[in-house]
Automatic annotation (TrEMBL):
It is found in: Membrane. InterPro entries: O-antigen_ligase-rel_domated, TPR-like_helical_dom_sf, TPR_rpt, WaaL-like. One of its GO terms (cellular component) is membrane. It is a multi-pass membrane protein. This is O-antigen ligase-related domain-containing protein. SMART domains: TPR (SM00028).
Length: 722
């Protein structure tokens, strides 16, 4: 190989590897899901460049070829098992590509595996690994700094509210990223060769990033940090033989940490704890707490899915089908759709079956074995990395991975692999046959992958964001962007179509030309039908289509989609609600009452289902049954609910309608719609003075209502009902 060409390849590989730690900092505001897609595309591009250049080096230079280890084999086997599961899952393209929201799938697993191959084969000295670990520490400080400034309002925490989310847009993602770097900084701090000034620096990193992690308010990560810190101190206190000072400090630290935990539990209900948001969140952990109880329900769904396909699972990105099929009505107080089990182990169990989960767990086992056997790490270093893996394990018991945690996990595994091999020792290897032929193939394949995995998808995500943004040319331009985004025909089609459907629902009542409305709506119907046809076993798509047709008052056309959705997800209440909307609007009270009863019986503690059932009973003149249903929960037949108030009014129950509207006005006195509805209820009972009084109060609240309100008053005084 030409020396200059080899040097360029080395620089390209090194450059890409040392740029990769900065991936978590990248926020692409020009792409849909800016905190996710930009990072994933950048990661893929850097891996493709580093892998392609390393592959050519490995073809010509034996010293760059992989050295096998348990980790090398099990990681390759894990990706192989998951690939097989994806192929057998029945939705291979979805499993391969994932979507814009997650950017995972087999394509990301393959890139992570290639990243491991390059890291573990190309970086061959402690010195260069030290440079790389310091580089990722530096990158983490930028993210932590942004998070710290969010506490003071200098950067907005977009998705996580009051919780720090740094450059991730998600507090949980930020927390696990900090977790990795706290332990890596601790490893660098306690190396014997680390200079004193750098020890102060690493100490600062540990304290600062622990503070940031704490204010992400991510309970799993906080528990992981505390548990990992305790375990590392305990291991050092037990097994360290040479460094007596560190051994003693570790013992005191472990004891102090136990004391602090015990003190926290004693004081968890006091104002001192409850006034600190992160501590309050930790103190709220219980088996009956809303988030915790929902986790148990969704884990049970994952278990049911595993029992149906125990060997190879459902494939990646297919948890939504398990969620729909085995939906537990007790999830009514959670978000409507889950595409993850929120537990990495149940996620891999459902996606990859028993082979997928066992191979994933074996990654940890081989990592622990490598740490135990290697003589190139001190007891302190082994304890820190083992505890990091345990902490990561704890964190993943409550959430799922993301590109930031995946990247750090592979980095740590690659470092452990490196430390299990004697530095600089390689067995002689023979030259590879056909390397002259394979080199240009590798170049061409690298260029092809750069385009195939990235270009069209980037264009699609960018165009979708334009479609969602206000355009100077008006809604017509938005429609053009939707069409252009779909023309790329990428794995983002589902998300584009769902956003298109949402936009079409909003445009129904917009002040635009009828022709534009019809064009927008017809295009949405055509595209959503394509989505339904592409995956007819998705209840989500069926109910979206049925709901949209309901909004268009195409009730007969909506029913087949809703029936299919109910067949696929027979216990999901929102599907029943769409049936109820349909049957109430089309005048089929008997079916509306039947569906509302069935929805209520699925989860009697679901207030919305109870009220909707009562509303349909009222429309059906079943007043006693409706009253008993409401009294059972609320102690009375009238409550502050607009649906009930309207139902009583339309059913001619004036007294109950008046009482309901009065309670709504008392609850939200500034709402003039409630006051005018109360005035109408008064008027229906010929309480004209009371009606006038409510309209006058509405005018006082909103002077813009004056002309219309005074017209109503004149009409009422004239003896008419406006």
């Amino acid at each position: 190989m030409n020396f200059t060409f080899e040097r360029y390849l080395k620089w390209m590989t090194t450059g890409a590897l040392f740029l990769t730690p900065f991936v978590p900092l990248f926020i692409s505001t020009s792409l849909f899901f800016p905190f996710i897609t930009g990072k994933a595309f950048l990661f893929r591009i850097l891996v493709e460049l580093s892998f392609g250049s390393w592959l050519i080096l490995a073809l010509w230079k034996p010293e760059y070829r992989p050295q096998k280890s348990g980790l090398f084999v099990i990681l390759s086997a894990f990706v192989g098992f998951i690939a097989l599961s994806d192929i057998m899952g029945g939705h291979f393209l979805k499993s391969f590509w994932s979507n814009f929201e997650r950017m995972e799938g087999l394509v990301t697993l393959l890139h992570l595996l290639f990243y491991f191959y390059v890291l573990s084969s190309f970086l061959k000295t402690d010195k260069i690994w030290s440079y790389l670990l310091n580089t990722t520490i530096l990158a983490s400080l930028f993210s932590a700094g942004r998070g710290f400034l969010q506490l003071f309002g200098l950067f907005q925490s977009i998705q996580s509210g009051a919780r720090i989310d740094g450059t991730f847009g998600n507090a949980s993602y930020m927390a696990v990223y900090m977790l990795f770097h706290i332990f890596i900084a601790a490893y660098l701090l306690f190396r014997e060769e680390t200079k004193k000034v750098m020890k102060w620096f690493y100490g600062f990193v540990i304290l600062f990033e622990s503070f940031v992690l704490f204010f992400t308010q991510t309970r799993g990560a906080i528990l992981a940090l505390v548990g990992g810190a305790f375990l590392s101190a305990l291991l050092i206190a037990i097994f360290e033989k040479d460094r007596k000072g560190i051994k003693k400090v570790a013992a005191w630290f472990a004891g102090g940490l136990l004391l602090l935990v015990a003190l926290f539990f004693l004081l968890k209900d006091t104002s001192a704890v409850q006034s600190v948001p992160p501590l309050k969140r930790i103190a709220s952990i219980s088996l009956t707490e809303r988030t915790t109880s929902s986790r148990f329900l969704i884990w049970d769904m994952a278990w049911q899915g595993f029992k149906e396909k125990p060997l190879f699972g459902w494939g990646q990105e297919n948890f939504i089908f398990i969620f729909e099929k085995y939906y537990n009505p007790g999830m009514w107080n959670q978000e409507p759709w889950f595409d993850r089990a929120h537990n990495i182990f149940f996620d891999w169990l459902s996606a990859g079956g028993i082979f997928g989960l066992l191979s994933y767990l074996s990654i940890y086992l081989f990592a622990f074995a490598g740490l135990y056997k290697t003589e190139r790490l001190s007891v302190v270093s082994k304890s820190l990395f083992a505890s990091l893996l345990v902490g990561y394990f704890i964190h993943n018991f409550f959430v799922f991975d993301n590109i930031g945690s995946y990247l750090m996990f592979i980095l740590v595994l690659s470092f452990i692999h490196f430390k299990t091999k004697p530095e600089g020792v390689r067995k002689p290897a023979k030259p590879l046959a056909f390397r002259e032929f394979l080199t240009p193939v590798a170049v061409v394949m690298t260029i092809f992958f750069l385009y195939f995995f990235n270009v069209k998808s980037i264009l699609s995500a960018s165009t979708l964001l334009r479609a969602l943004s206000p355009q100077e040319e008006g809604v017509t331009k938005n429609l053009e962007y939707y069409k252009k985004a779909l023309s790329y025909d990428t794995y983002g089609n589902q998300e584009i179509r769902e956003q298109l459907l949402s936009a079409s629902s909003a445009i129904i009542n917009r002040d635009v030309s009828q022709e534009l409305k019809e064009n927008f709506i017809q295009f949405s119907l055509d595209e959503m039908q394509k989505q339904v046809d592409s995956n007819p076993q998705s209840a989500r798509h069926q109910v979206f289509m049925g709901s949209f047709l309901n909004r268009l008052k195409l009730y007969d056309r909506a029913i087949p989609y809703l029936e299919k959705a109910l067949e696929l997800s027979p216990r999901k209440q929102p599907i029943y609600f769409e049936f109820i909307t349909n049957y109430l609007a089309s005048g089929n009270l008997e079916k509306a009452i039947d569906f509302s009863r069935r929805a209520y019986e699925l989860a009697p503690d679901f207030d919305d289902a109870r009220i909707i059932y009562a509303v349909t009973l009222i429309y059906g003149n079943n007043f006693n049954e409706a009253g008993a249903l409401l009294k059972e929960k609320y102690g009375e037949e009238t409550i502050a609910d607009e649906r009930l108030a309207s139902a009583y009014f339309e059913a001619g129950e004036r007294e109950k309608a008046i009482l309901s509207w009065q309670k709504l006005v008392a609850a939200v006195p500034e709402n003039i719609q409630y006051r005018t509805s109360l005035a109408a209820a008064y008027l229906s009972g010929d309480f004209r003075e009371e009606a006038i009084l409510e309209i006058q109060k509405a005018i006082e609240i909103n002077p813009d209502f004056k002309n219309q309100g005074e017209f109503f008053i004149r009409e009422i005084k004239a003896g008419r009902n406006p």
